[in-house]
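Exercise 7. Predict the structure of Branched-chain amino acid ABC transporter permease from Enterovirga aerilata.
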Amino acid sequence: MFDFILHVAIIAALNGLLALSLNLQLGYAGLANFGQIALFGAGAYGAALAFSWGFGPFAGLLLGLALVSLLALVFARLGRSLGADYWGIATLSIAEILRTVATNETWLTGGAQGIGGLPQLFGFDLPGTLALAAAALLATYLVLRGVTQSKFGLAVRLLREEPQLAASLGYDLAGLRRRVMLISGVPAGLCGFLYAHYVTFVGPDQLFASETFFIWAMVVIGGLANHSGAVLGAVALQILSASIPFAKDALGLTSEYVAAARLTLTGGGLLLFLLLRPQGLLPERIGSVRA
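Solution. The predicted structure, encoded as tokens:
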């Protein structure tokens, strides 16, 4: 049972990285990225490809971050010619295209079978893995909080609220979007790298669009434009998700209930908070740069 609790804590910490990444895009910059899982996938496949080519974890981290940066630039470039709604749809399309490529290009990605056998960074030492994931989460939290409390953070908020005013004041909107995507891509890619080495496997089934909406639910439930809220939402949803199998056993339900309940929890929680408490559990602090 203790190992299970450590596992839940590790996944919650990794999900916190994804939530912080999306929160910078969606909460602070107003960029509705529906392809967030692709940034995670770039980091994960970077680790997997480096391993399959005979390189160590450090090379996998560098390759993953390089792939994430390239994908982030592609996302940002789309924002120069597309409106917010169409940009969100385009990011979702790109994520699905990349998942399809990962599924079919067996020579590179292992296809539907994926790439397995990656080494765990701490062997099977769950406390060590948790310490690494928690350290990455804390470092990301502090860095992003510093970013959003800076003049750049104020410019990003202006991009979200009044893009035309920001442009009239001389801000380069395309440049702001590009920097937001690059900065936010790092924790997403780092999450993918750590997750790949934790579960020792990377495959296209990890990149379904439903995973992006699970990340969206974390951010919306926790609170947009609030770093603490993003982490809280990630932890809360992971605990709820981990409790589903216990509820299944207690109620005598079939195994199919687990997947359905997770989707219901994600979609239902997202809708409830959008309708009843759109500001989330920890709302943005209006008039303050501290969140």
